[in-house]
């Protein structure tokens, strides 16, 4: 670094230039009782106080090493949820999405097995799993309905050629449970034999035992857990194509 650049940086003040509001928002999906759910928080502060919104918040310039850390931190603070899978979907910015001014948000999607969420009180008044097909009827804060639609499109697209649905299942799981997860995320039925053949041939599962049948009836189903290479695998042909 030459002396001119050192002098420039020593006297540079970022506050001399206008900057947009910058936040991180996350759409968290899960499956429960054969329904696709999304996690929403009720805002406890203005603007849009009392409206449902995605969990999110501002970057902590001193604490967060990157925006992934921001997303993880805000999820834990506002929902008590740990999300092992976070994927960046898009960055959205314009002068109308936030009444406080020109705003930018980086959108993430997360998949987790279903778990009841504890109520947290860090700028929210409630945390609730909502059926995805009922979200459009809610009066959501900001442009969060649009963000949910974007994340849903990404989820369905990636489900067609990856093993993403394994992240919404509690381990261990059966092949029937896994197929049901694929079908719910894709919103279409899959042929049983073809699905099982493709999943097993991909070597993405480790058999860990057998399920216990209710009343001792029927054959026990094999139980599986995903392999570590799950997130790096992509199927050559899409499911349901």
Summarize the structure.
The chain has helices at about 5-10, 65-80, 130-135, 145-160, 175-185, 190-200, and strands at about 20-30, 35-45, 50-55, 55-60, 85-95, 105-110, 125-130, 205-210, 220-225. With about 240 residues, it is an alpha+beta fold. The protein has 2 domains: about 20-160, Nucleoside Triphosphate Pyrophosphohydrolase; about 160-225, Arc Repressor Mutant, subunit A (Orthogonal Bundle), CATH 1.10.10.10.
Describe this structure as you would to a colleague.
The protein has six helices and nine strands. It is globular and about 75 Å long. Helix content is 26%, strand content 26%. The strands form two sheets. Strands 1, 2, 3, 4, 5, 6 and 7 form a seven-stranded mixed beta sheet that branches. With 241 residues, it is α+β, with helices and mostly antiparallel strands. The chain has two domains: 140 residues, Nucleoside Triphosphate Pyrophosphohydrolase; 65 residues, Arc Repressor Mutant, subunit A (Orthogonal Bundle). The model has no long low-confidence stretch (mean pLDDT 89). The protein starts with a helix and ends in a 15-residue tail after the last strand.
């Amino acid at each position: 670094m030459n002396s001119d650049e050192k002098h420039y940086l020593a006297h540079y003040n970022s506050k001399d230039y206008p900057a947009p509001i910058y936040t991180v928002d996350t759409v968290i999906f899960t499956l429960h009782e054969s329904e696709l759910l999304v996690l929403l928080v009720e805002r406890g502060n203005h603007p849009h106080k009392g409206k449902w919104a995605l969990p999110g918040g501002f970057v902590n310039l001193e604490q967060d090493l990157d925006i992934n850390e921001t997303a993880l931190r805000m999820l834990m603070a506002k929902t008590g949820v740990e999300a092992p899978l976070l994927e960046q979907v898009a960055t959205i910015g314009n002068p109308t999405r936030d009444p406080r001014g020109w705003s930018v948000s980086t959108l993430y999607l997360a998949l987790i097995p279903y778990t009841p969420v504890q109520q947290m009180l860090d700028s929210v008044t409630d945390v609730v799993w909502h059926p995805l097909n009922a979200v459009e009827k809610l009066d959501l804060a900001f442009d969060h309905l649009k963000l949910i639609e974007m994340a849903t499109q990404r989820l369905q697209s990636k489900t067609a050629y990856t093993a993403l649905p394994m992240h919404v299942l509690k381990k261990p799981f059966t092949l029937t449970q896994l197929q049901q997860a694929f079908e719910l995320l894709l919103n279409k039925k899959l042929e049983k034999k073809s699905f099982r053949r493709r999943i097993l041939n991909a070597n993405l599962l480790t058999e860990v035992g057998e399920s216990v049948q209710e009343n001792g009836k029927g054959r026990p189903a094999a139980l599986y857990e995903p392999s570590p290479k799950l997130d790096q695998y992509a199927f050559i042909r899409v499911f349901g194509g």
